[in-house]
Amino acid sequence: MRAHLLAVLALLACSDLPKSTPKPRAIVSISTGLVGGSARDVEDRVVEPIEHAVGQIEGVAEITSRVDGSTAMVVVTPVAGRDIHELTRATQKALERMYRQLPAEVEPPAVRMLPGNDAPIMTLVIESERLSRTELSEIVDVVVRRELESLAGVGSIETHGVSVPALFVRPDPQKLAAYGLTVVDVTTALQRQNVAIPGGRVDATAQNMQNRISGQSLDVETTGAMLVGPHGHAPVYLRDFATVEVGPETPPDRATPRLDLHAQLGASHDDVRARVREKVAALGLPAGVKVVEVATEHPPSTELVASIRGPDRAVLVQLTEGLGDELRADGVVLDPPSSKSEQVIEIDRDRAAMLGISVGDIAATIRAGAGSQRIGEARLDGKLRSLVMQMPSAPPTQVLTLSVRRSDGRLVTLADLVTLRMATSSPLLRHDRERAIDLRAPATAVAKARKRVAQEAAKWPPGYRAVVPR
Question: What's the CA dihedral at 369, 370, 376, 382 to 10 degrees?
């Protein structure tokens, strides 16, 4: 789900690029965020440093950034002829060099290479009147998706409407506090005991053998028996303060299981579709299971009228709203849209430093306490599945009751270290390191809208301008 969301954000950001090209170029996307941060915090402390680092790379044509709440997406478009694979590697290296300059509570930037237009080339629906949703989901995930992923030219495959099992660890916050433990203690223990590491080589007379030390969780019972830490002189196991159970990793919607297929960069869409149809026909699925190709849905398209740019977001809003109801009646819309309410978490850095608590630990506690977090893998019925830590659903203020460990080992609740407040925030858009608001419209209204923008732009204050696609 997260990969699908990032792909959608990257597609939106790419569609904002002011240059119009007949064939979308491949892009490099960087997804990141700031735990508890406002959109302005993310822009100032995360996006701007990343844009500066990426801007030093040779062969970059445009940089577009989108900030929505505490998350951000930076899209890098290469100049014509620039090798997209080399640009991706250069972007990763640039981020590695500057990562220490970012705040401790930053979400580690994830770099992906995407087609300039990441719309699916093919949609498959999997149907069965006999099998349950769980049984059908197993076929979709283990048989159909994995077989199709191996085909030449197939890039990513998005799954919808499936219910794949995962192993959930659900701590009880009150029991956690009673044992003197924190959510960071739990995630650390799970990650430490949920790894497979090399164990060295044994030389024998007839053969050489590689040892592999596996700490991977095997089932509900062994996961519950994980040692998390002592309480007094007694050991504390995961089952003492948490429920360990199997459940759907992503709650399924009511839709029939569906696969959206995307092509690899440079692959012929017709050739990929032909290979997929051939493979589907040869899958040998259980009786009553059908794979049906359906028309791929595409959202209504709009064209970029102009990108309104300048240093102050509030002024940009005034200028775009000043264009009047006439344009809106023709279907012209603003991107990003209007403001919305969001919760901002402010960390008292001075108090945290005085108590010997790292901002990174505070951020990790907030991140873990805010919902689900994938920790590693578990083996269920012989298959590798996700191991997920999930705190119980609670009001946003519940995160303040969680504890973080001081340098002397004592616990402090987040209520003593952070402040929650509601704020009004607007998603932020940036083109080539400038704040921007884009005007988009149906193709039939673009010419009229551009004429109106040109008339109004002549009256704007210095530093503000309208950039029209070339």
Answer: 100
Rounded Cα distance, 419 and 421, in Å = 7
Contact 244, 224 (CB under 8 A): yes
262 close to 156: Cβ distance less than 8 angstroms: yes
Pairing of strands 165-171, 383-390: parallel
Q: Is the dihedral of CA 249, 254, 259, 265 positive or negative?
A: negative
Q: CA separation (Å) from 100 to 104, 420, 437?
A: 8, 27, 31
Strand ranges, E, within 140-223? 154-160, 165-171, 196-203, 208-214
Q: Which two tokens stand for residue 200?
A: 């060295």
Q: For residues 29 and 52, give the distance between their C-alpha atoms in angstroms, rounded to a whole number.
A: 15
371: left (phi over 0), alpha (psi -120 to 50) or beta: left
Q: Which residues pair with 425 in a beta bridge?
A: 340
**Ramachandran category for residue 130: left, alpha or beta (phi over 0 → left; psi -120 to 50 → alpha):** alpha
The values of phi and psi at residue 120, to 5°, are -65, 145
Taking only the tens of pLDDT, the chain with its 470 residues reads: 444 444 444 444 444 444 443 455 789 999 999 887 888 889 999 999 999 999 999 999 999 999 988 899 999 999 988 998 899 999 999 999 999 999 988 988 999 888 766 678 999 999 998 888 888 888 998 889 999 999 999 988 888 888 878 899 999 989 998 999 999 899 888 888 765 434 344 443 444 444 443 455 557 888 899 899 888 889 999 999 999 998 887 765 566 889 999 888 778 899 999 999 999 999 989 999 999 998 876 666 788 899 999 999 889 988 888 776 667 777 888 777 666 677 788 899 999 999 999 988 898 888 877 777 888 888 887 778 888 888 887 777 888 889 999 999 999 999 999 998 877 777 899 999 999 999 888 888 888 889 989 988 999 999 999 999 87
Helix (H/G/I), strand (E/B), else coil: 383? strand
Q: Determine the Cα–Cα distance for residues 374 and 3; give it in Å rounded to an integer.
A: 14
**Residue with structure tokens 């590697």?**
89
Distance CA 183, CA 186 (A): 5
Tokens of 27: 């892009």
Q: What angle, 0 to 180 degrees and rounded to 10, lies between the N-to-C axes of helices 84-98 and 48-55?
A: 130
Query: Are the C-beta atoms of 378 and 216 separated by less than 8 Å?
Result: yes
Q: Which residues, 6 or more positions from 51, have their beta carbon under 8 angstroms from its beta carbon? A: 63, 65, 74, 430, 433
